[in-house]
Amino acid sequence: MIERESDFIVFGAPDIKEDEIDEVISSLRSGWIGTGPKVAAFESKFKAYKGAPYAAATNSCTAGLHLALIAAGIGSGDEVITTPLTFCATVNAVIHCGATPILADINPVTMNIDPEQVIRKVNFRTKAIVPVHFAGRACDMDALMNIAVSRKLKVIEDCAHAIETEYRGGKAGTFGDFGCFSFYATKNVVTADGGMVLAKEPKDIERVQVLGLHGMSKDAWKRFSDEGYKHYQVVEAGFKYNMTDLQAALGIHQLERVEMNWLRRQQIWLQYNEALSGLPIILPSAIEPDTRHAYHLYTILIDHNLAGMTRDQFLSAMTAERIGVGVHYVSLAEHPYYQAAFGWKPEDYPNASSIGRQTVSLPLSTKLTNQDIRRVIASICKVLGNNVCEEDEA
To answer: Is 218 a catalytic site residue?
Structure first.
């Protein structure tokens, strides 16, 4: 917990309680620290929370995306459409399948992939769409699913930011063929690192499970259990992507508090909205009707013409104030590897490029105290040379 004004406010600090610590200790004492019964319990609790029929835990969302793409039949010669405003893992998973990622620009208001841009990129090589629910805001799944159904495309939802996200009565990760989630240290549910894949079809989740543990036959993790040694067969050349019981021990209790924590992050979000509304910055757009935002990231835009400073100057100034901030994200087309490999140019994705050069993510964690939040707001005002917040701080 942050107790002194001089302490650095960590961006995305995980909120770990005694229940998680006790559960991890229980795993250590049990002797079962690999993939075991607690992973199975976490899978069961997560699919119940999402209302999904099938779930498979992985050691990261990146691993989950890779497995889902393979299970969806994506491979060499295929093209997969996704957003340029995402973490590199989204496109790297496509590349590791031997397929080619194709970028469709974002809607500048929602910062999510624009269905109209998706339509322009579809051709005979297109096999899948990977929408990313950016910051926890739901993508336009009606439009995207209509495109997918009409063109017979697979949909793999990247839900790294979207554990609690809903769209018109449905839960993120349950619209497409697969939904992939992250439990990284900064996420809304934390297992230190880890991921989950949801699927609609039993054959799909079974393939994810087999591929995720070396390609060994189903339930191979039980081979050292008290049920007695179980022989296994290697049926595919798989990967080492399994979650451990130590990770799941954290996740079980984190998931129990998911709704309470969502309410707290909503409270912080609204505090930011109110306190920062008079400043020369651009705040997140209003949440669309009949959707639920996961409140994973609170992203502001620093427009030099409005703020009188660049985004990077703002980042440096906030760090000097001992406030942890993030950038989500520099457009993928800005990175030298993708420019060399695919010829991507920032100017070809003007919305993602513009936002990527202006965006800043503020601390948004249930570990933040009210004092921490006041410090963040006061620091923003100070950095921008604005006295709007002084009365609130007095």
So the answer is: no
Active-site residue identified among 17, 187, 200, 367: 187
The answer to whether domain 258-393 has CATH 3.90.1150.10 is: yes
For residue 6, which amino acid is it?
S
The CATH number for 18-256, chosen from 3.40.50.620, 3.40.640.10, 3.40.50.10540, 3.40.50.2300, is 3.40.640.10
pTM value is: 0.95
Q: How far is CA 103 from CA 97, 276, 281, 346, in A?
A: 17, 33, 28, 11
**pLDDT score of 168:** 98
- Per-domain residue ranges for the chain? 18-256, 258-393
Using pLDDT thresholds of 50, 70 and 90, give the confidence band for residue 225: low
Q: H helices within 297-335, ranges in order?
A: 304-307, 311-320
- What DSSP designation does 267 have? H
Give residue-wise pLDDT tens across range 288-345: 999 999 999 999 999 999 999 999 999 999 999 999 999 999 999 999 999 999 999 9
